[in-house]
Amino acid sequence: MTFNALDATALAQLFTEARTHNKLDGEITDAQLQEIYELTKFGPTAANGSPARFVFVKSAEAKKLLEPALDEGNREKTMASPVTVIAAYDMDFHEKLPQLFPHTNAKAWFEGERDNRFIPAFRNGTLQAGYFIMAARAMGLDCGPMSGFNNAMVDEAFFKGTHIRSNFLINLGKGDPSAIFARSPRLRFDEACKIA
């Protein structure tokens, strides 16, 4: 069996040379954001539930809404970033399952109390946010994913009256390599993995 692996240049862009950037600039068009999502949506989720929801904080007005929710250490870099993505998840994602998983009544699997949907919504929404980072890198952008903000404030500002909850933020743009420190170590295969 042969594997059709990406070449070293592509792997470097996606993984080995890609970094979390703290200083991002440049211009990102709405069309680019749509292209990133068009790649992201193909990543697998349980029952094709696709609970992730993305808000692209780009305008001055939207940035003003986001700013008070940011921890002090994340404020300056986020306000300077061309776009900040609020990666969120829909606690009522199951309502779209008749459209997304039409060959069986998957919606019934998730009916009931909203709290019972938290784990699949959060898990699969987080997966999709990870796919988003890889899609953005594949499109030539750099990312600065982060926590360090008040989720309740973001939910109040951007998702009030909905069943959508924020997960984490991703600053997008062209990264400045001079603004990052040396890559931190990673665990070796034998420290993190076991073949059973």
UniProtKB/TrEMBL annotation:
Keywords: Flavoprotein, FMN, NAD, NADP, Oxidoreductase. It comes from the Bacteria. Residues 27-158 form the Nitroreductase domain. Its EC number is 1.-.-.-. One of its GO terms (molecular function) is 3-hydroxypropionate dehydrogenase (NADP+) activity. Its cofactor is FMN. Belongs to the nitroreductase family. HadB/RutE subfamily. This is Putative NADH dehydrogenase/NAD(P)H nitroreductase H8L67_09605.
